[in-house]
Amino acid sequence: MMTTPAERTGSAILALEALAVLLVTGWEIVALVTGDTDDAVSSIALIVLTAIGAVALAAFALAVWRGHSWGRSGGIVSQLLILAVALGAITGPTPSVSTALVTAIPAVIGLVALFLAARTAAARRGDDRS
Q1: Is residue 117 part of a domain?
Q2: Residue 28: which domain range?
Q3: What keywords are assigned to this protein (predicted)?
Q4: Structural domain tally of the chain?
Q5: What is the pLDDT of residues 14-42, one digit of tens each?
Q6: What does the angle CA 117 – CA 122 – CA 125 come to, to the nearest 5 degrees?
Q7: Which of 3, 5, 53, 97 makes a 20 to 30 Å CA pair with 28?
């Protein structure tokens, strides 16, 4: 089965987000090793959770590329969570519009691509039943 442009775009966005979250995991590890944390146990827990998030995003990217519906579902939820983070970036104690935009723009593109991929998959299923 060939992937559609929407599936390729959604998969690429998810893969780039997985890479970004993996880089954040590395940054957290460096902060732990250099002593730039207040609580080592909390820092380790955050590193583990961040790494799990990176693995999940990578799995969603691969699943979308392969046309699996669970990848699209997980990807859509991920994009909505990323949009919530972007909203927090402009409404928090130190608002940053640039951070919000850098976070939100790929998430919106990914969300649209994943919705289009879901529509395409539904249309394919409809053709298969005919």
Answers
A1: yes
A2: 5-123
A3: Membrane, Transmembrane, Transmembrane helix
A4: 1
A5: 999 999 999 999 999 999 999 999 999 99
A6: 125
A7: 97
